[in-house]
Write a structure and sequence with these properties.
By secondary structure, the chain is mostly beta strands. The protein contains 2 helices and 28 strands. Pfam families: WD40.
Length: about 350
């Protein structure tokens, strides 16, 4: 099923006139954005090996307050559930943890290949914050930062981890073989619950788990996104894919396809999912009504990641080179930005 099988809705063009830029210190392309679940703080992990922590005001203005340094490009970051710690990981195969209040950083070797994604996970039986890391060494490993010498557990996967996300009891891992592996963190975090075929045909670039833990969304290089249900009984009414970042056909009937680099659920309105792509645009969708809510104009460069804050009222997106056009297009004047977009009610919700 596709959004484009539905009749178009009116007033779907949004504005970026009120978007506010955060200071980036001339950093390299930002690869990952994560908001604190407890405060108005944003973490941004970058290819320059730094994870910057920002305090963001309600009007979108903000300032950097802390920084984590790694030994290579960082691909992912996340906040602890209480908002006191940030973890980041990437090419140096290590996990880095920043204590937000003191600025103290600890690091430890974690994998045999670069780490693609890292998340604090909800494992009630652990009795302590646990970090899950997904790597190109084809494993997901769990870490108790009080004793980081050895992983608490290791889950072997059929292929490299391309994307990973979690909410509540659910951890979803997208791998290079086009599969999505599900783990129930509350019942048996060391074993796969099941493995589903990804609804998208080509390489996954992004994955987001719904706040309820009942669904997950993915985006791929083919300019498509999908939503899938955790409960197989709901798949028939929930599962679908749609085209999201594609130019209209030209005079020769050629459609230019852009990668969907990021998908993000709105934490306060689960029916709202954002997609962002190599075409430099982001779009808000209602995945229950199969409707486009707002499509925004190009921001001047590829969007590499995006995220809603805990209230659903602020939307962060990163602009930078994503290599989709090859090395020859990575020019010194290519924009690198971190932006905050206010999200009023009419952008993320449409009455039935």
């Amino acid at each position: 099923m596709s959004f484009f099988n539905k009749k178009p809705v009116i007033n779907t063009t949004g504005s970026i006139d009120k978007d506010v830029a955060l200071p980036t210190d001339g950093c390299d392309t930002i690869s990952s954005l994560r908001w604190s679940p407890a405060s108005d703080h944003l973490a941004a992990a970058s290819w320059d090996g730094k994870a910057r922590i920002y305090q963001v005001a309600k009007d979108g203005n903000g300032q950097g307050i802390a920084m984590l340094n790694a030994e290579g490009p960082l691909f992912s970051c996340d906040w602890s559930k209480d908002g006191t710690m940030v973890t980041a990981a990437g090419a140096d195969k290590k996990i880095h943890v920043l204590q937000a209040a003191s600025g103290q950083t600890t690091s430890f070797a974690a994998h045999d290949a670069p780490i693609r994604d890292v998340r604090f996970v909800d494992i009630p039986s652990a009795g302590a914050p646990i970090i899950a890391s997904g790597s190109w060494d084809k494993t997901v490993r769990y870490w108790d930062i009080r004793n980081s010498g050895q992983p608490v557990a290791t889950v072997q996967l059929p292929e490299r981890v391309y994307a990973m996300d979690t909410s509540g009891p659910l951890l979803v891992i997208s791998t290079a073989d086009g599969q999505c592996s599900l783990i129930n963190l509350h019942n048996n975090p060391a074993a796969l619950l099941r493995t589903d075929k990804n609804k998208l045909k080509h390489q996954t670039r992004s994955l987001s788990v719904a706040p309820s833990g009942k669904y997950w969304a993915t985006g791929s290089i083919e300019g498509r996104a999908s939503v899938q249900a955790v409960d197989p009984a709901e798949s028939a009414k929930v599962d679908f894919t749609w085209r999201c970042h594609r130019d209209p056909a030209d005079a020769k009937k050629v459609v230019k396809v852009w990668a969907c680099n990021a998908v993000a659920y709105n934490p306060k309105r689960e029916s709202c999912v954002a997609t962002a792509g190599s075409d430099g645009t982001f779009v808000f969708w209602d995945v229950e009504q199969h409707t486009k809510l707002k499509a925004f104009p190009t921001v001047g460069g590829a969007i590499t990641d995006c995220a809603f804050d805990r209230t659903g009222s602020m939307f962060a997106y990163a602009v930078g080179y994503d290599w989709s056009m090859g090395y020859q297009h990575n020019t010194p004047n290519y924009p690198t930005k971190l932006m905050i977009h206010p999200t009023p009610e009419d952008e993320i919700y449409r009455a039935k």
